Amino acid sequence: MNLPDPLRRIVETEYPRFSDAEMARRRRAVETLLAETGCEHLVFCGANRFGSAVQWLTGWPVTAEAIGVLTPGRPDALFVQYHNHVPQARRLAQDADVAWGGQSSIREAAAELERRSAKSDKVAVIGPLSADQHEVLAARFGKPANLNKAYVQLRQVKSAEELDWLRIGAHFSDLGMMALRDGLCPGPTERELGDLVERAYVAQGGVNVIHYFGVTPMRDPQLAVPAQFPSTRRVQTGDIVFAEISAAFWDYPGQVLRSFALGEPTPLYRDLHAAADAAFDAIAAVLRDGALPAQVLEAARVIEDAGFSTIDDLLHGYGGGYLPPILGSGSRPAGPVPDEPFRAGMTVVIQPNVVTNDGRAGVQTGEMVLVTQTGIERMHAMPRGFAVIQSSS
């Protein structure tokens, strides 16, 4: 399975970057948020590879810690931990003034705000600010305005360039799932399944986000959902293996979920997967620009009509974080149903992971799709359906 030439050229770039026009679009969006809240400066931060705004605004993926200062009309300042991470941060965040954060990146950021003559109650934040970091800012500049919710809304609708990077992430995720399918046989441990998956995309530039596996006998099921940490249990004939895989291209992942039977599926598992497929198709049929989350929940009632429930979120936004809307099913709600309609350009994961009501058996199916004006566009190439892996072992 090969990438189209335009996407392949992105992957083959030594360090790929978004266009100047795309980066300017993002900056304008953030500056608009600042103006709407009456703020003049933004502190954006991340730590331990978490905090997507840093990469979105500068091109630097967060490693240990990174704290940036954005002021309209001035270059960004970016303070990075550790000292040995600074050289590559300067290379990737070319439009920012990158420096080592010293003993405290937030104190360096606060000093930069003072150099920029920041006034009290004119500073906003995006990212996972700790209590101690919040205290440093508040002591000098008053309580910072929290723009995290507004930032998440910015990330829901993707640009054309972002969609290209997400298609690459979907491609890598497909490679992992196809490697799992093609390598499944009795004998490997769940740990070895992870090795099988990652070998499919790491050498091509993909980065592991998750590969969760569930392995249990179909005739005596004891597991309804993939485990977040693999065990040493070995795959056996008669097992079902179900998986959720996300591999990313930089900060742009795909997500694909599938189930595989090692041998003939039992009637229960055929019924579970039939309900999951029916729910996926029903949700896909209503999703489009202007569709409401309540319509998705109504479409998914085929799960309860079949006598089953769900164990995971039925649908969630993806790309730039685990984004709204986050929807449960009728029998397993995920909170109040939002009123905001879907919009063209949103990427969401449809994942009706159907389980028995006693929570002992379940299946995985689903994938990330693009919402369009008239429906959805598939972003994954991994074939859908309940795959049967025949084995004589």
CATH class of the largest domain: Alpha Beta
Helix count equals 12
User: What is the CATH superfamily classification of the largest domain?
Assistant: Creatinase/methionine aminopeptidase superfamily
CATH architecture of the largest domain: Alpha-Beta Complex
- Helical content, roughly? 25-40%
Structural class: alpha+beta
Strand content: 15-25%
Radius of gyration from CA coordinates: 23 Å
Summarize the biggest pleated sheet.
10 strands, mixed
CATH topology descriptor of the largest domain = Creatine Amidinohydrolase
Structurally, the number of domains stands at 2
Order of helices and strands: HHEHEEHEHEHEHHHEEEEHHHEEEEEEEE
The shape is globular
User: What is the distance, rounded to the nearest whole angstrom, between the alpha carbons of the first and last residues?
Assistant: 29 Å
Provide the low-confidence segments as ranges: none
Total DSSP E strands: 18
What do the pLDDT scores average to?
96
